[in-house]
Amino acid sequence: MEATKAEMGEVREENERLKTLLSHIVRDYKSLQMHFLDAVKVKERAPDDHKAPAAEPDDDEADEPEDLVSLSLGTRPKPNAGAPRKGHDRTSSSSSSGAETGNDGQLSLGLSFARGGGTNPPSSDDDDKASLALPPVLNLSSDSSGDEPGHVQQAGACPPSKACRSSSAGNGADDEVLQQQQQANKKARVSVRVKCDTPTMNDGCQWRKYGQKISKGNPCPRAYYRCTVAPNCPVRKQVQRCVDDMSILITTYEGTHSHPLPPAATAMASTTSAAAAMLVSGSTTSFAHHGGGGGGHHLRLTSAGAGMLGPTTISTASSCPTVTLDLTAPHSLSLMHPSSSSTTLYGGAAAGYEPSSRALPAAWSSGYLAYGSAAPQPYYAAKSTPSAFGHFGPMSMAARPVVAEQMYGHTTPYLQRPSGGQVVAPAAVTDTIAKAITSDPSFQSVLAAAITSYMGRSGGAAAQK
DNA sequence: CGTGTTTGACCTGCGC
DNA sequence: GCGCAGGTCAAACACG
């Protein structure tokens, strides 16, 4: 009895602490919002001033002259790390036949700049997270199209690359609607660049190779894998060495797992889902168009943030949008949309830590770490049903670490290990990440937005169930 | 013998 | 319509 009381007391205490932290986060978030908005405004005024170097090698432009919306967070003009070059650029962009609904129904994190006035997130979301009202800049809507069944989220619902391709361009009844449909049909991809000696990166999932191909511009063959954890899992990945640096492995994930994942795989999977969702969301959103030459849309922003984050470029194009997480360079966690589209985001996630060949990339590892260690109810994800995972997955990368760190203000020494037995990351990495997150407003904005979205979505999902 | 990989053929989309 | 390139299939093969 007494023990129970004591526990209750602890819980209450914890609850209070969480409330305080939450309000703190909200406050921070709002101020970050303002920073972000400022950055956006500045960028819009001087669109030319800062090219997002990482994401657009010349070839890139040549290759993908299409809609390109880029978003630069931070000031890290490292040209290569995030920027796929010719060879692998194509890799990730590979117009691929793919056109599946992908992560459509999922939580989405995107951008919606300069939209005439329709930047309001769906009201339903608003309700859920009233205190975290979204800025006009970040559109975290669970997407807009409203209905958003939440069952559609599974890429598998629609066989990859074939069934869903009916982007019937026929009627041209409503361009916008049509575009949205087409965008929705795009298969969002998440590409990961990691230094890795082994033929493929161990991400905790089981994969079966089903093909290999020499792609143009890269002497290294590209290998095609599909997830074999579940028979019907639609997730596929492509693995290819970087043409510039053979030690860099570029892994491109596509689709969302339709099954529970082993712990070792959740971080990766949710990260990729998150990125994919972000892409999908971003691509379904209208952006301000700069320099319409050749139909290219290009938008960039640069935050006044610390140098930890680099250029973020989000671009959309007719084929598959791709987010690339660049973990090859220290201090870099990048999201990018090469190919048809490119988003590059450098962060401090991997600071000082170079993922060893068989280890998970630091970013995931740390996210995983923080997540696993800090959750008040341990293993949120582990408890998730597959579908829940499908819904919530997209949040994980962004939100977990930040939530963990900000809410608890510390990094637990507890190290979660993937079932594979690999050590995920040193605690120092987590610290670094925490610092990166807390020190960079832009990154925080994104993360906070993701959290907001997550909260809204999870509420909605819960309501659905 | 079961499972996974290799590899050439085939399919599809896209640009010219 | 044609050719090219990316993506997938499936038979053959290798391995434990």
TrEMBL record:
- What is the organism field in this record? Zizania palustris
Q: One Pfam match, by short name?
A: WRKY
Compartments it resides in: Nucleus
Query: Keywords assigned by UniProt?
Result: DNA-binding, Nucleus, Transcription, Transcription regulation
Put simply, this protein is called WRKY domain-containing protein
Q: What residue spans carry the Basic and acidic residues bias annotation?
A: 43-53
| Start and end residues of each stretch annotated as Disordered | 43-190
Would you name any one GO CC term?
nucleus
Task: Reply yes or no: does the keyword Nucleus apply.
Answer: yes
InterPro entries, alphabetically?
A: WRKY_dom, WRKY_plant
Residue stretches of biased makeup (Acidic residues)? 56-67
Where is this protein chiefly located? Answer: nucleus
Q: Which domain of life is it from?
A: Eukaryota
Q: Where is the WRKY domain?
A: 196-262
The entry lists its GO molecular-function terms as: DNA-binding transcription factor activity; sequence-specific DNA binding
